[in-house]
Amino acid sequence: MSKQAAEVAKRRTFAIIAHPDAGKTTITERLLLMGQAISIAGTVKSRKSDRHATSDWMAMEQQRGISITTSVMQFPYRKHMINLLDTPGHEDFSEDTYRTLTAVDSALMMIDGGKGVEPRTIALMNVCRMRDTPIISFINKMDRDIRDPIELLDEIEEVLGLKAAPITWPIGCYREFKGVYHLTEDVIYVYSSGHGHERTDAKIIKHLDSDEARAHIGDLYDDFLEELELVQGACHAFEHDEFLQGQMTPVFFGTALGNFGVDQVLDAFVDWAPAPQPRMALEREVLPSEETFSGFVFKIQANMDPRHRDRIAFMRVCSGKYEQGMKMRHARINKDIRIADALTFFSSDRERLEEAYAGDIIGLHNHGTIQIGDTFTEGEELSFTGVPHFAPELFRRVRLSDPLRAKQLRQGLQELAEEGATQVFFPQRNNDIILGAIGVLQFDVVASRLKEEYKVECIYESINVWSARWIECDDKKKLQEFKDKAHENLSIDGGGHLTYLAPTRVNLSIMEERWPDIKFLAARESH
Ligand code: G4P
């Protein structure tokens, strides 16, 4: 195997999908502990934006110099290289999460054992399903009173439409939690509380049918055997192929807080999850083993270092090898640029990067030319597909307090739109600027950032827009006809795409009916 093929085979790139409070932050810390990226759990802080009020959230965001280092985490584990991509928990920032999920090869689904499958998990799972992303499941908080595990598996099957194959099975829960039984290895991993912050190997009892196991499980032993029989009869056995096709999920039980069961999950990623996969471009499929470099940008984030106004474009490498100082072709604008200082995200520090392979994430300094979805190559004309933009659901007209700052406002909004913080629309019939968002919190964040970063104070006004649709049409004549007729409601978005802003749902239906040759797209892929 060539060095490159070996490097690619070593990589596992995944994200965690979870409803807020299921334990994503906690397990992230434990995973980093496992990869020796941190020495004691409890050091990854300030990522709990989910549960805070808007004002807190913004104050925290302003300290993004701290939180950003955990936005992509790379660490070695069992001679493999793990890339863990963080996703914002708050649903108002779901677009960012959706796009991050396009950059992974697999995902870890965390479920709070007391609550089961929750709404945000369902939404994120639906995004994973678009690409049939393989999912490994972890049912968390076994040290608490949880719901019947069989019921939880049923819920995964029914609500998420995934076949659930238990790999471990819990012995008791809450104060009676005694560990998990590994269904195929026939061993018990013994739980002991109080080791949540350390790397410890769980004590193992070989064979369920042993005196040691009987003594450990105690009064629960007979009930446990009965339950196990039921589980083995009723549940699916794990099939690796079905997992890789995104149809079956292996399920583990444990407690992130107690750092129990987390190593089994990480082992499952190494043993079962796919190495970096091929990616589709408009022109062709690109294999990770190809020698020439390619990658796409799935996220842009500003102000990583509060002292500089730099923006970082997060790029997933799809093929070849990145080396410091290499030249890359920015395919959309057809320009070669030399990349001298890309960032890597090894351990918990930002470091200068030496090399990166398919599956890795690198951070490019962006001075305003890079947009979400952009493709970079070593000269070939390629456009990777599959990075989605969703039509906003909320709209505001922006007005300036100080009219003399119009230029700064435009620049600020353009940049925030490129970053994906909001969407911006410039109507064709007047000079208004309209902002679109998926979650209302986005507007507050934009106003606050305009003030902080661009010294622009703005006011929002309500506006009569129900939804936006991107317009596409292969027939140039028809398109022109449509542009003339629909002029009043047409605008150009921050990326230069023609967009129809529908005042009402009824209006949109009428237009769709009247213009059958025009595509009104609720989501578009960047390319
Ligand atoms: P999130 O990022 O998914 O939102 O969840 P996070 O890890 O912040 O966990 C949410 C709460 O659940 C935290 O408690 C955390 O300590 C707790 N938790 C996570 N895993 C487990 C577990 O396995 N068992 C138990 N019993 N609790 C768990 P908190 O009180 O809200 O925060 P904190 O004060 O402990 O930080």
From TrEMBL:
Gene3D superfamilies: P-loop containing nucleotide triphosphate hydrolases (3.40.50.300), Peptide chain release factor 3, domain III (3.30.70.3280). GO terms for molecular function: GTP binding; GTPase activity; guanosine tetraphosphate binding; translation release factor activity, codon nonspecific; translation release factor activity, codon specific. The keyword Nucleotide-binding applies. It comes from the Bacteria. GO terms for cellular component: cytosol. Belongs to the TRAFAC class translation factor GTPase superfamily. Classic translation factor GTPase family. PrfC subfamily. This is Peptide chain release factor 3.
